[in-house]
Amino acid sequence: MKIFKHIGLFCVLLSGLIVVSCSPKNALPVSNPAKVKPLNDEQQLRKQLYFSEAMRFFELRDWEAADALFRKTIEIDAGCDACFYKLGTMYFHSGLAPEALSLSESAVRLDSSNFWYRVQLAQLYTATRQYPKAIEAYRHLLAMRPTSQELYFDLSTLYLRTNELDSALAVLNLAEQKVGYSEPVAGTRFEILSAQDKTNEVVAELERLVREFPEARYYTLLGEQYLNMQRDSLSLQMFQQALTLESNYMPALFGESEHYRRQSDFDTFFEKIYNLCGNANVEKRYKVEYLSAIMEIPQFSQTFSPKFDTVFSYLRAPADTLSEPLYAAFLMQTGKRDSAEVVLKNNVLNNREKKEAWHQFLVLEYYLEKWDTLSLYTEEAHIVFPQEVDFMTLKAIALWQIKKESEAIIWLEKALPLAENTPQKVQIYSFLGDLYHTQNNSEKSYENYEKVLAIDSANIVVLNNYAYYLSEENKQLDKAYAMSKQAIEAEPNNATYLDTFGWILFKMGKAIEAKAIFRQAMIYGGKESAVILDHYGDVLNELGERDTAIVYWEMSVQKEANPAVSAKIKNTK
User: Fold this and answer.
1) Chain-centroid distance, C-alpha 429
2) How many other C-beta atoms lie within 10 A of the C-beta of residue 473?
3) Which pTM value belongs to this model?
């Protein structure tokens, strides 16, 4: 039952002697201490009856009835601070924090000395993200109860939310003075000092922690700090001490292994890794995360390829969707592309209903540019996951690459209604724009580009492509100029975008300005593109620099044979 809807009942109090309507009111009651008046005996009795019955419904969590009765009590006694407090509690628990805040403020106005009223008010300031007021409220609470450790933590958390790290530390230091050294205080202080990169203070805090609370977690954290400081013997001692306390403590196992790797003691390192990967008490996802980090340095896995083969023999027992992608990545790093493909293909066969397995295999096929097999398997994936837009998009990419643009368009048009988020829609509209252009359907191409720009006006890829295609058709050159200019302002060192802008200037009859842009494009990689070299040659030829134009055309032909460019060279000589 939702709170504060129509109740449609009558609350019977004291065996039917008093009957009140319980229809809730829309407006929240607001306290006004100046209007609080003494009650006569009859009013006191009625207030007591209504309040008692309201509390009964409150305890039963029939908050609609309790709401009506608390309000009725306030009508009799505008100074019923407990009524405002309980109403605030109900609204707070119902997810109506702003309404609860108004009621809680009323309770505190009526009785500013009540600790629990102020606790609720502080919590509501926090819930409504009024952090300065919340900080002030907690400071007032600490003045009332200076030995409450929980209040210190709440206040330090508020300072963390406002990124006032020094203030948060000051509160924790005060907590230690008032309450004494405790694990929660020290642990939180360690986190703050770490965020501030205060290495020496972090180490001092951890050294104190392991003395006071000798746990595997703290020994490991200290070991990691020593390791980063190249205090190698001390780091190893800490990891081994942690493992003495908890022989299968995962972070310490990894820390010990990492110590030997950094010491270039690779025999011991791999021995530890073999044991770790074969340890059934360590979750596989942690093993995979650690090995993934190591394999970010391809030379390492390539140098120790036989040893990594052994590592994966442990890790893959049994093979699953966690270990197989990493094993495939290792095979790719060591030049065994066909084997990597087989691993991920088998992973799909063994986990046909797992989307991630399909995604890993299909992305590999994309990377390997195996367009025929990508087209085949994306269709199979679509049968299993008919609503998966990414698989349909990959299918369209494969079809595009094998020159089946019409079929690619059909798949994208089918995917579009299924796109659940803006990035997917932008990707599909952009792709459709490119595909329709390959079919010489400028109207549909530009229609899709416009849809992209309606969603993302700063999409520089579409701005560039749209502008270039307009220039090729000698249409709307002013619009093309504006879009291309926006693209190069976003990426001034992109040779492709510079080429588009320079080409538009050339089409607008501004060859001198175009030359300056193309010279900039040459600096940022334009010499690697046959198209850009050809365009630059055209600009130079227009300016009468024919010999230099021929040089750039010849460079273009060397990059990519083009009869039209060859003809320009022949006709100009």
Assistant:
1) 24
2) 13
3) 0.65
